[in-house]
Amino acid sequence: MHEKNEILVVGGAGYIGSHMADFLHRQGYAVVVLDDLSTGYRKAVLSAEFVEGDLADRDLLKKLFKQHKFTAVMHFAAFTQVGESVQHPAKYYHNNVCNTLNLLDEMLRANVKNFIFSSSAAIYGNPEYSPIDIEHPKNPINPYGKTKWMVEQILRDYDHAYGLKSICLRYFNAAGVDPECRIGEYHNPETHLIPLVLQAASGRKNEIKLFGNDYDTKDGTCIRDYIHVVDLCNAHLLALENLLKNAASKAYNLGNGNGFSVQEVVDTAQKITGKSIKVINVPRRAGDPAILVADATLAKQELNWQPKYVDLATIIKHAWQGECVMAQKGVKHE
Asked: Whole-prediction pTM value?
């Protein structure tokens, strides 16, 4: 048990953050969630102390760090929509970079020097080779990816200058939900492939669009690396435990190393759900690489991380259970 270790989870009412907060609680950590509920949901915070607020509110941050003796901070509070970041870059630079600086500065003021950062494969841009290892050139092609890479570079400088230790976890396609279905996957609008496909299966959507079927892949559709949210949480926990043992700052890729095509996702979803899913073929989206697969060797070697739910059928099965709960609750797709 870790009662003395109190962890601040910013963005802890969102999809990954809420799973992480619950995961930490189950491991015996004391957890405080800070979320402005702009994209998160209060009902997703099951067991942590909840504080509604924004990282732009320096007074609130000062108060939080004065009231609590945090051992570490986990950051899940970024805006994450690639298309929106292109249309509204100011929103992304203010929240993802400026607000993260607010948080880091308050951490230093309170002498909290352990930070786990939710980064992204978007920092790599279009892949020059696959699978992508952490040495792959960093060339983000949209403001979202640029903000993630900027924060990683800021963290490197804060380590050298101030001794703030961090682990940046670059993940690919988070998927699935808590196997017990206590927490689901809520996005509005929904942009993740697996929940979109399952919404079409449950009747919350009429159809899904398949963007391009002429890629140089086995079935012509894009290949992506899907990682179960529980496996992501486990990697964050291992990273935290490493930092608490005075490990050096580091970055890791997180993925299961298996690429699954869009068509495979649709086919597997139809098998799992027993439902027919209507697919509309539309042209490719600009900037969509044919293959994005992670090389997570370093995380496995140094963090002793072993993904548990690596097969697509299990990931979709868990997500489908969560989708059924959403449909029963009458949650409408917007």
From this structure: 0.92
